[in-house]
Each structure stands twice: as C-alpha cells, then as structure tokens.
Amino acid sequence: QVQLVESGGGLVQAGGSLRLSCAASGRTFSSYAMGWFRQAPGKEREFVAAISGSGFTTIYGDSVKGRFTISREIAKNTVYLQMNSLKPEDTGVYYCAADDSCLRLGSAPAYWGQGTQVTVPS
Predict the structure, then answer these.
(1) Measuring CA to CA, how many Å separate 114 from each of 23, 36, 54, 84, 96?
(2) Most-buried pick from 31, 49, 59, 65 (CB within 10 A)?
C-alpha cells in the first residue's frame, strides 16, 4: 500500500517561511502526480499546489500563487512545499496527496497523508 508522511509544519509569524515535506513509501511510482491540499477550521478543503510525475509541470491555487513553490525529488520519492510570505489565512492542516492520474489528483486523489499543522498567528 501507498503511504504518505508529511513533515515540517509548525507555528510561524506572519511574513515568515516554512518548507513542508512529503515522503512517499510503499507501492509508489515516480510517475505519480503529487500535491498539497489544506483545510482550515470550519472551512472546506482547498487545493494548494500540484506537480506532475516528471516534475516539469506545476499548478497552484490562486490564494498561494507567487508565494508558495512546489517541487519534487523523484529519486527520493519526496515532494516539497516551500511557503513564503505566510499570512494568518494560510493557517490550517496541510495534506499531501498522490494519484497516478493528474486529473483525479486535483479533485479526489487516491492517496492521502495524515496532515501537518501550519499555524500563522494574526
């Protein structure tokens, strides 16, 4: 089975930076698309960013475009989310996701991590 483990969350002041990591293990393939979602208390899950299996194509949610950067190291089966200029609105649980279909990844990914908390106090 596929397992995704996030790390790197924490409390950061507004304007600061964090880098989240997601390590994949088990039955995974380098061709899998991977991405990040987040969910704030009382709000729906929100798409943050995604990257293709090759690592050459990335997409971002409008709320994070220009501030967050997704990348991956295929050899390590790991995806990263570099978060800069953090705002209180970025607070939430961040989930790593993966799917062998880039189309499904954006809506209903097959695999999810356990989530890591990011808190940006106001």
Answers:
(1) 12, 12, 24, 23, 8
(2) 49
Identify the CA nearest to 64 among candidates 101, 17, 108.
17
Say whether 104 sits in a helix, a strand or coil: helix
Taking only the tens place, the pLDDT of each residue in 30-77 is 678 999 999 998 999 999 999 998 889 999 999 999 999 999 998 888
What is the distance between the alpha carbons of residues 22 and 96, in angstroms, rounded to a whole number?
6
The helix or strand, by DSSP H or E, that contains position 105, with its residue range, turns out to be helix 102-105
Go through the chain and tell me how many residues it has: 122
Q: How far is CA 67 from the centre of its chain?
A: 13
